[in-house]
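Researcher: Quick test of sequence recovery. Tokens follow.
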């Protein structure tokens, strides 16, 4: 009897220790995975700790002295589907700096979305190094990637994925409700020129307006990075340009590092830098002397 009681007490103490350790670990992650100076100060000396050990393939690839936001070296992605292996990225080297507006151009199947998903922590590279502010994302644990996505990255896709039964304001509030230091839904909708329409439901808004609500939702948490996968793909020229104007304003006023995927070469004019992807490789890079205003683009 005494033995059983001792065992039960022992198990309880052990459980308490494990629970406290898990809580402490989560709190440390939450504290570390914040963007900006605090993140850099807290994380840089510990780079490598949060991710799993590097794979053998990624080990020998050196990461250059890092001053930007993202640094990718030899990033490869292979999709294993049944018997077939599809190599979507063949060793991408890339540096992205704070506040840049980068357009990613390439034909269908060239690996644009794959690269964007890896940058945004939605997917992991098969090999290579990917570092965000000194923090290795390759091989990172799912919990770490979740915090990275939640705190540091806003996504905009071709389709808006708004909840039809919620107004524009409520769609944005869904995100501000779980963010650390969000702007108000009203402020976010004002940034995309939709303050007057915030109590309208998606069905009462045009495609371009819905996309701007999706952009407001993406930036309301003040992410350091905004990743847009063909944000104007489903829109006509006029509404497409309004969407690009919203993206341009966010990049300029909030200093958000912005990456925009497109098939449309005209959009390259509004970028600081254009990266051309072909067959899973960056085959060319162009830096624009000046950026053209989105409002002046036509196609
Ligand atoms: N989940 C997957 N499983 C298997 N293969 C995939 C998967 N996702 C992408 N691929 C393949 O990887 C390659 C790159 O695809 P990706 O979607 O990155 O191209 P993309 O440049 O974004 O094309 P698009 O302009 O048509 O969107 C393609 O050959 C594609 O078929
Ligand atoms: Mg794509």
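Model:
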């Amino acid at each position: 009897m005494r033995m059983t009681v001792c065992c039960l007490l022992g198990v309880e103490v052990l459980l308490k220790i494990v629970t406290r350790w898990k809580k402490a670990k989560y709190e440390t992650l939450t504290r570390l995975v914040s963007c900006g100076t605090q993140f850099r100060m807290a994380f840089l000396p510990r780079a490598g700790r949060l991710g799993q050990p590097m794979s053998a393939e990624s080990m020998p690839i050196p990461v250059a002295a890092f001053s930007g936001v993202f640094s990718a070296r030899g990033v490869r992605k292979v999709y294993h589907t049944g018997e077939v292996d599809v190599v979507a990225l063949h060793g991408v080297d890339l540096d992205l700096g704070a506040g840049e507006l980068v357009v990613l151009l390439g034909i269908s199947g060239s690996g644009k979305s794959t690269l964007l998903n890896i940058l945004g922590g939605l997917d992991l590279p098969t090999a290579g190094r990917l570092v965000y502010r000194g923090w290795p994302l390759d091989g990172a644990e799912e919990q770490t990637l979740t915090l990275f996505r939640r705190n540091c990255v806003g996504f905009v896709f071709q389709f808006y994925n708004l909840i039809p039964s919620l107004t524009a304001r409520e769609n944005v509030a869904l995100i501000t409700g779980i963010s650390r230091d969000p702007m108000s839904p009203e402020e976010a909708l004002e940034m995309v020129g939709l303050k007057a329409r915030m109590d309208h439901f998606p069905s009462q808004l045009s495609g371009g307006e819905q996309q701007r609500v999706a952009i407001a939702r993406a930036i309301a948490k003040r992410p350091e990075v905004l990743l847009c996968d063909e944000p104007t793909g489903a829109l006509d020229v006029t509404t497409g340009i309004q969407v690009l104007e919203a993206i341009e304003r966010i990049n300029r006023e909030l200093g958000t590092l912005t990456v925009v995927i497109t098939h449309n070469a005209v959009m390259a004019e509004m970028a600081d830098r254009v990266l051309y992807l072909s067959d899973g490789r960056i085959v060319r890079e162009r830096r624009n002397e000046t950026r053209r205003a989105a409002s002046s683009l036509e196609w």
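Residues 74 and 97 are 18 Å apart (CA to CA).
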